[in-house]
Specification:
Length: 171
């Protein structure tokens, strides 16, 4: 079952993120890794900044989460995590499809989890586009901009690329 997460889900969301983020250990640059991967303050700030979490349940247990954030001309998919013991069972894809159906805006994903999104039809934007997009839509340190990527669906690329032509990429 997929449902919008409630305030009472804060601790399970936090646990899922930090459990699933273990997959990044040794993969992302060491200076971007810390314990916990996401603190409760960071999670609170993301929610306060407009990230709405949706979750997948098995039985009555929340086992996966994925955030969606409306940024006007684009929608961001944020913080997609599945509990370690059930990764690879299709739950992440099910959540992604659910969130994709919630918006008609082009979807952008800033991540280190490239293979998951590529399997789901997303492609990397150019390095120049990535740098502009990450600085416009995300609040992350410069070092994270350097080491992250942004993906979009090729069919949706026109939606955010036309904004570059209007000049907001130069801000």
């Amino acid at each position: 079952m997929i449902r919008r997460c409630a305030r009472s889900d804060f601790e399970p969301i936090h646990e899922i993120i930090n459990d699933a983020a273990q997959a990044y250990r040794g993969f992302i640059p060491p200076d971007r890794w810390h314990e916990p991967y996401m603190s409760t303050d960071e999670l609170s700030n993301e929610i306060r900044d407009g990230v709405i979490f949706w979750g997948a349940e098995r039985g009555r247990e929340l086992v996966a989460v994925m955030g969606i954030q409306d940024k006007g001309e684009v929608t961001l998919i944020r913080h997609a995590y599945v509990r370690t013991q059930i990764q690879g069972e299709g739950i992440g894809t099910t959540l992604l499809r659910h969130l994709e159906a919630m918006t008609e805006q082009p979807i952008l994903i800033g991540t280190w989890a490239v293979s998951f999104y590529r399997k789901n039809g997303y492609t990397l934007v150019t390095k120049e586009e990535k740098n502009l997009l990450l600085r416009r839509y995300w609040h992350i340190p410069d070092r994270q901009v350097e080491t992250s990527v942004v993906l979009a669906k090729p069919s949706e690329a026109e939606g955010y690329l036309c904004a570059f032509e209007k000049g907001w990429g130069d801000e």
